[in-house]
């Protein structure tokens, strides 16, 4: 609500929006729903979902990047990874602290537990779900702390811990 500036700003009923929208058919799809500050909704867009193959994370320090809401305009966020290879993804740092990638939260594992960085660009629904259920802990993580773990997993609404994993030796630190 703070984004809209008023507690009574209209927020669309997303279940109702989808009830009047024919689904895309079989398979796994992601759905993009865009709405404005008056609650007006653009037509939902469905796209086939295929997780990216990420083999390497490259730490990029971006102290002033704001992605506190899922903005439709992702230009600044996408620019962070300009020049990366097809199997590389940016691991975004803010003042030396680990946050997220351009499209996911991150969790670090040692084979026994998952640890999420306390700092993030976007809180993420899957991140919140996992924290609420005690499936991971949360603490401050500096860039140099990532080497204390065996691997990093990308997590978002479509990805569970373990779905996309990068070994910590394949994380390029600043």
Would you kindly provide a written description of the structure presented here, covering whatever features stand out?
This is 4-amino-4-deoxychorismate lyase. It comes from Akkermansia biwaensis. InterPro entries: Aminotransferase-like, BCAT-like_C. The protein is mainly beta. The strands form three sheets. A five-stranded mixed β-sheet has the order 8-7-6-9-10, with helices on one face. The chain contains three helices and eleven strands. It folds into two domains: 14-48, no CATH class; 56-172, D-amino Acid Aminotransferase, Chain A, domain 2, CATH 3.20.10.10. A hairpin with a 4-residue loop joins strand 6 (105-109) and strand 7 (114-117). The radius of gyration is 17 Å and the shape is globular. It has helices spanning 14-19, 75-79, 125-132, and strands at residues 29-32, 45-48, 56-61, 88-94, 97-98, 105-109, 114-117, 137-139, 151-156, 159-167, 171-172. The longest helix has 8 residues, at 125-132.
